[in-house]
Structure formats: structure tokens, C-alpha cells
Amino acid sequence: MNDLLTYAAQRDTARSPFEQIKLTTEAGTKYWSARDLMPLLGYETWRRFEESITRAKFTAANQNQPIESLFVGTVKKSEGGRPAEDIHLARYACYLVAMNGDPRKPEVAAAQSYFAIQTRAAEVQAPPAKPSGAELLAMAVIEAQAMIAAKDQQIAELEPKADYVDTFVADEDLITFRTLASDLKIGENELRAILLDRKWIYKQESSRWSEKEQRKKLIYRYSAMADKKKYFHAVLVHDAPRFRGEVMHTLKLTPEGAVAVNRLITQMRRSAATLQGPKGPVA
């Protein structure tokens, strides 16, 4: 961990562990294996690391970036010879993964610095002469992370809060669209349509072959808009068919989101009642 921070702070890219695991395609394109990158960011399990990748994909989608070329799904043989899911990450994809990683991990801060610097250098096709832009931001992140790492008591206070969010808010306290729609006495599809129209969520479409019906069927995946993410939580569904090569997820509402949607529907009903008036629609 200390080596990672040292390499990042000194901008010694040649000695950086992130540089050592960099791969190159036959066409000369640089990329990183998510499986190789995972331990350098301080993650021990693929499931936890994949959550950061999923959040990175959401960020890329909200920025209208080409997800398919930034995150390329593949298979990697493990040490035991068994195939394991892997993702080839472009340089910018690595940067997004680091930015969406666990902010309490100093390794994540080191990755943020490295990939921010390299992404900026690639944009201008030459290493920057002095820190600026994304590099300054990355250095600020490293300094903040070092301060957090030095304060064990503060980290200890953060742990239970993170555990609460992961254990309770991510599971028991989440609310389905069907349940909320029933409470609001409207149809589930109508509720989704309202949130789509108000740009609280967005819908992606794909298709898969149905052996039972012997035809292609449309499938949809709903995700939260960037400014409404606190209202929703994407629950990964690993045993469902993959969506455009990615792990499928089901969008649910957080308690705060349920309150906000309830407030929205109430306001809409009041506005409709005001326009209609006591004797029918206003002429």
C-alpha cells in the first residue's frame, strides 16, 4: 500500500504497479484486466469489486461514453485453471472504476492519481509539465486519503456506518416499484412512466432469445439519473440473463426515494385537482 502511494505521489509511472500490469492489444491499444487490477485497489473479492465497475459504467453512461468499448467483457483463467469472468478496461474505464471505488482505501486513492494523470497525458499526447486539472484533483484526493488513513479512530467510526448502508439500506429497507405503486394506488407501469417523463430514471432496451416461445423478447433495464441516485439502488441479479454483456440489475427505491416519489405524486394530484376545479376541467 505504501509503495502504491509513493509511486502515485512521485508520478513515477515506470515503477508504478499499475504500469506493470498494463496490457496491449495487437493494434497497440492499452488496457487493464479487471482481475489484475482488483488486488491493487485493495479488494479481496470479485463481487465487491464488480460493484465499483457497475457504478463506473453508470457514470460512463451518464456522460454518454461508449460503454461497450470502455468495458469489454471476457473470460480469464484462474490459477486453478478454471475460467472466471473478467473485464478488459480502457484507461478511462480504470479511472472511472477508481473514482467509484471505496474512498476509505488508500489503494483506491493511488489508482485515482495514476489513471487521472495517465488519462490527461493521453488527451494532450504528452506528459503535463506541471500538475493541473485532473492531476491536481487526484493529488488532492491522495492527500485527503492519507489524512483519513492516519486517523484510525475516524475510520473506525466510518465502518459501522458503511456496514449499516450495505446491510440494511441495500437489502431490507429497499422498496420495489410494485409495492410503492400499490401504496400510492396507481399502476406500476404508470409510476415508471411518470419517473421516466420527469427524468428521475432512464430505460435501456435489449433482447434475448426465448427457447420456450421460440422468438426474441425485449427486455428492459431501468437506472437512476445521476442527480437522483440517492433515491434509488441498483440490486445486481447475478443469476439472471446478462444485459448487453453486463450483470442485470433490478432498480429499487431507498426510503428517502419512496418519500420523494410520494411527495411528487401528491403534488401532481393537487395540481390536477386545481386545474380541474369543483365543476370540471377549466375551459
Arrangement of strands in the largest sheet: 1-2-4-3
What's the total number of strands? 8
SSE order in H/E notation? HHEEHHHEEHHHHHHEEEEH
What's the pLDDT, averaged over the residues?
Answer: 77
Question: How many individual helices?
Answer: 12
- Low-pLDDT sequence parts: 1-11, 150-170
Summarize the structure.
This protein is of the alpha+beta class.
Description of the structure:
- Pfam families: ANT, Bro-N.
- Residues 153-265 form the Antirepressor protein C-terminal domain.
- It is elongated and about 75 Å long.
- It folds into two domains: 2-150, no CATH class; 177-276, no CATH class.
- The protein is built from twelve helices and eight strands.
- Helix 4 (46-62) crosses helix 6 (91-99) and helix 6 (91-99) runs antiparallel to helix 7.
- Strand 3 and strand 4 (83-89) form a beta hairpin.
- The longest helix has 22 residues, at 255-276.
- The chain starts with a helix and ends in a 7-residue tail after the last helix.
- The protein is of the alpha+beta class and 283 residues long.
- Residues 1-11 and 150-170 have low confidence and may be disordered.
- The strands form three sheets. The chain has a four-stranded antiparallel β-sheet with strand order 1-2-4-3.
- 52% of the residues lie in helices and 18% in strands.
